[in-house]
């Protein structure tokens, strides 16, 4: 295990009696696998804090994606959060360093994706007959052939952001599945920066949590001369109820703060 209990507990961004949001580190799978000896499930008992069982995942992030990861502190909360994700009521923003800048500088990538098995696992491909997949983006800065990009996935397909950016010719730096193989190898530069959840009574504002940038992204931005503090996150509103979309499931009021993913 790479982290001590104190180190891992320091990654808690929000906790109440139902919900837990952590800053997931780089190179940590969220599930046990035959190729992974270190994974998130090993650390979750440290975050149990008096509950009968460890927290449960409400959604997923790829092994090498960092940032906001939501868990339910009990089965009922995890199920409720899973419904909010599935129904599209959770708003997420990501930051990425891309090889080249998408054109135009602000836009929407609307390309359907299909998941296929490949040697060693699965990946997604652009496919007109696939599932609807929509990503909004904004180029924040450019330097030395790289770009600092904010991303808002409107759907939550596996590898959506990675596949979409590669499809428009600007893969994420360090993405060896959908992009090039940089030498020397680099960690993927993709970070789940903020998450906004309609958590609590509907008359209260939604809960928004932000994760700090990881060291490898900060180091690249410093080399490029890009100051991330000049680009605060764009917080989009939580979707309102539409005729074709049921109201979000009721959620408990948040206490004092102490399903496939798109990244």
Characteristics of this structure?
single chain; 263 residues; alpha+beta; Pseudouridine synthase; ten-stranded mixed β-sheet; two-stranded antiparallel ribbon; 4 helices; 12 strands
Summary of the model, kept short:
With 263 residues, this protein is α+β, with helices and mostly antiparallel strands. It has helices spanning 5-9, 75-87, 160-167, 215-224; strands spanning 12-15, 19-24, 56-57, 66-72, 91-99, 106-110, 113-118, 121-126, 134-143, 146-153, 190-197, 207-210.
Q: Which regions contain 5 or more consecutive residues with pLDDT less than 50?
A: 253-258
Q: Tell me the structural class.
A: alpha+beta
> Helical content, roughly?
10-25%
The strand count comes to 12
Task: Provide the domain count.
Answer: 1
Helix run count: 4
Largest sheet: 10 strands, mixed
What is the 3D shape? globular
Mean of all residue-level pLDDT scores: 89
Q: In CATH terms, what is the architecture? A: 2-Layer Sandwich
Compute the gyration radius: what is it?
18 Å
* Binned strand content: 25-35%
Q: What separation lies between the terminal Cα atoms? A: 24 Å
Q: Please name the CATH topology.
A: Pseudouridine synthase
Q: What's the CATH class label?
A: Alpha Beta
CATH superfamily: Pseudouridine synthase
N to C succession of SSEs: HEEEEHEEEEEEHEEH
């Amino acid at each position: 295990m790479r982290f001590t209990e104190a180190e891992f507990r320091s990654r808690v961004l929000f906790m109440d009696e139902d919900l837990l949001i952590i800053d997931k580190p780089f190179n940590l799978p969220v599930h046990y696998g035959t190729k992974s000896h270190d994974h998130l499930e090993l650390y979750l008992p440290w975050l149990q804090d008096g509950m009968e069982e460890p927290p449960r995942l409400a959604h997923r992030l790829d092994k090498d994606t960092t940032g906001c990861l939501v868990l339910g502190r009990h089965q009922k909360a995890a199920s409720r959060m899973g419904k909010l994700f599935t129904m599209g009521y959770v708003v997420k923003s990501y930051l990425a360093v891309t090889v080249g800048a998408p054109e135009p500088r602000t836009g929407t990538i609307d390309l359907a994706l299909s998941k296929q098995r490949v040697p060693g696992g699965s990946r997604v491909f652009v496919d007109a007959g696939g599932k609807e997949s929509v990503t909004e983006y904004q180029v924040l800065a450019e330097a030395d052939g790289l770009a600092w990009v904010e991303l808002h996935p409107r759907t939550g397909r596996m590898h959506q952001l990675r596949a979409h950016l590669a499809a428009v010719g600007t893969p994420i730096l360090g993405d060896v599945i959908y992009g090039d193989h940089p030498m020397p190898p680099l960690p993927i530069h993709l970070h789940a920066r903020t998450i906004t959840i309609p958590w609590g009574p509907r008359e209260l504002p939604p809960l928004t949590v932000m994760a700090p940038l990881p060291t490898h992204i900060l180091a690249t931005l410093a080399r490029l001369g890009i100051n991330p503090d000049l680009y605060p996150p764009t917080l989009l509103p939580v979707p309102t109820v539409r005729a074709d979309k049921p109201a979000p499931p009721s959620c408990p009021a948040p206490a004092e703060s102490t399903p496939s993913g798109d990244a």
